[in-house]
Automatic annotation (TrEMBL):
Residue span(s) of domain D-glutamate N-acetyltransferase-like C-terminal: 134-326
Domain D-glutamate N-acetyltransferase-like N-terminal span(s) in chain numbering: 43-124
Name of the protein in its database record: DUF1611 domain-containing protein
Gene3D superfamilies, per the entry: NAD(P)-binding Rossmann-like Domain, P-loop containing nucleotide triphosphate hydrolases
Length: 343
């Protein structure tokens, strides 16, 4: 376990999506956060006290979390400098980037000299097996998306909490750096060698006999040319009984690919269901989650209602409007498995 409390890193990021890991930790583990570190040119904030490395250490922070996410997962020079400053102030450092903290000689030497730790969250488990796709016991829901960073983790966590509030056994299964930092465990699926992706998810959500649900955090999108391979492996390994489609209305193009439009919701859900049927023949869609954080509440309600009418599935913003309608659909259809949505 990564020692808390945390200092969350924003650095010089000008991109709200680029700080999604720090934002996710602030949203779901706020009591474990003492503050945020950002440079003067950073326009972003999490609403936490702004602190220097020394101030955070004095306030009790034990770990600086480099909670940023950029294409390729690189560790640029400014991050290395800031991580070194955190170590010099007496804090551990955690990151979920593809480049490893431990592979930076300066950071490794500082951590060793000061008796501190470097946590590389994007390390996949050793000795993974290839997926087999054999039927296995248990109830599993997977979130899928029209694009990257559209709210799949938020939706999965909200659904997990909602099921537990109903007295249903439910476990969040993290597959990305933010989810792993929130949950304290998981598999960073985009760091798994391609042959082992589906097997890694079979291991993450193994057979269970208690009637409870595994809610598996989705990654990427089948429609995103950069990350569709990970999304497909997740679909096959999850063997989901149910899918929830996540989307951010108004997004102008696929993340990182100007000019490439997001898919239509109905087509996206249909293609995900088609792919999932390789290992889960009776999979069904049970809901749509929209990230309406950039929309006025009345407009969000109208959009959710229109989407629900068009697709015939409950539609909501899981954070602003709750997930009760989707859970109602999930539990109702789980008790009558012959009622399968055409989506």
């Amino acid at each position: 376990m990564i020692p808390a409390p945390f200092l969350l890193y924003l650095g010089s990021s000008a991109d709200a999506l680029g700080i999604k890991t720090s934002r996710g930790i602030a949203a779901f583990r706020r009591d474990d956060c003492v503050g945020e570190f950002r440079h003067d040119d950073c326009p972003q904030t999490l609403g936490l006290p702004r602190m220097s490395m020394a101030e955070a250490a004095a306030a009790g922070a034990r770990t600086l979390v480099l909670g940023i996410a950029g294409a390729g997962g690189r560790l640029p020079a400014d991050l290395i400098e800031d991580a070194a400053a955190a170590l010099e102030a007496g804090m551990n450092v955690a990151a979920g980037l593809h480049e490893r903290l431990r592979d930076q000689p300066r950071l490794a030497e500082l951590a060793s000299a000061r008796g501190l730790q470097l946590f590389d969250v994007r390390d996949p488990p050793a000795h993974l097996s290839v997926g087999k796709g054999y039927p296995r016991a248990g109830r599993r829901l997977l979130t899928v998306g029209t694009d990257c960073s559209v709210g799949k983790m938020y939706a999965t966590l909200a659904l997990t909490r909602g099921l537990r509030e109903r007295g249903v056994a439910a476990d969040f299964r993290a597959t990305g750096q933010t989810g792993i930092l929130v949950a304290g465990a998981g598999v960073p699926v985009d760091a798994v060698v391609a042959d082992f992706i589906s097997g890694a998810i079979e291991a993450l959500a193994p057979a269970r006999e208690d009637g409870g649900w595994d809610l598996i955090e989705g990654q990427g999108s089948l429609f995103h040319p950069s990350f569709a391979g990970v999304s497909l492996g997740l679909l096959h390994g999850a063997q989901p009984e149910a899918l929830v489609l996540c989307h951010e209305p108004g997004r102008p193009h696929m993340r990182g690919i100007p000019g490439r439009a997001l898919p239509d919701l109905a087509e996206c859900l249909a293609r995900n269901l088609e792919a999932a049927r390789l290992t889960s023949a009776e999979v069904r869609g049970v809901g749509i989650c929209l990230n309406t954080s950039g929309i006025e509440r009345d407009d969000a309600l109208r959009l959710c209602a229109a989407t629900e009418d068009r697709l015939g599935l409950p539609c909501t913003d899981p954070i602003a409007l709750g997930v009760e309608s989707i859970i109602d659909r999930l539990l109702c259809e789980a008790s009558t498995p012959s009622t399968i949505s055409s989506y």
